[in-house]
Every structure is written in C-alpha cells, then in structure tokens.
Sequence to fold (109 residues):
Amino acid sequence: MVSSSRGRSGRGAVQRPSAKYWLVVASTSLSAAARAANTAAPENYAVLLITKAVQGSASALDFVYTLQLVAAVLPAAYNTQAMAFVSAGLTLGDALGPVIGGIVFQVKG
Fold:
C-alpha cells in the first residue's frame, strides 16, 4: 500500500504498509480519541489539560509523519508541490477548525 516503491513490488503484488503509515494512522486515531475525551469531560480541568496535551502531541506526530509519508510515496519531482498542499491542508484544518466549531456552537447551541 505505502512504500518507497510506490506501493507495488516488481511482480505487481501490493506491499505491506510501512511503519510510517501506521504511525500516521495511530497518531490520527489518538488525536481523535483525545478530542472525544475532551468533549466528554469539559468541566474537569485535569482531564482537559491531559487530553489537550495528548491531542497536541498526536497532532504533531501526525503532521511530521504525514510529510515523511508523502516524501516516501511520491516521485521526487512532485515532493515540493505535494508537501505544500499537505502542509496547507493540515495547517488550515488546525487553524479554521476551532473557529468553525465556535460558530456552529453559537448558532446551534
């Protein structure tokens, strides 16, 4: 699925996902779980602090390993453009997510 040989061996068989792929999956899942725990216990400051720390760490891992995964999968000629798109998407999501969430919360309650 994901490797430096663009996901296929010479005989056409799909290769197993790399460790970087699983790090991206794990960090994204951990970030989502921390956000869910954050939502479930908003009144408890200790839980809020811990879940925000876990979410921030997982998001940082996600950002870094997603860029490494893009570099490993795509040909070198496309790396700059692909990394720019991925970086922009991840940054905009982190920047606009809370704003849009706040607007939705104000409108819907």
Observations:
- DSSP finds three helices and no strands in the chain.
- The helical segments are 19-40, 45-73, 79-108.
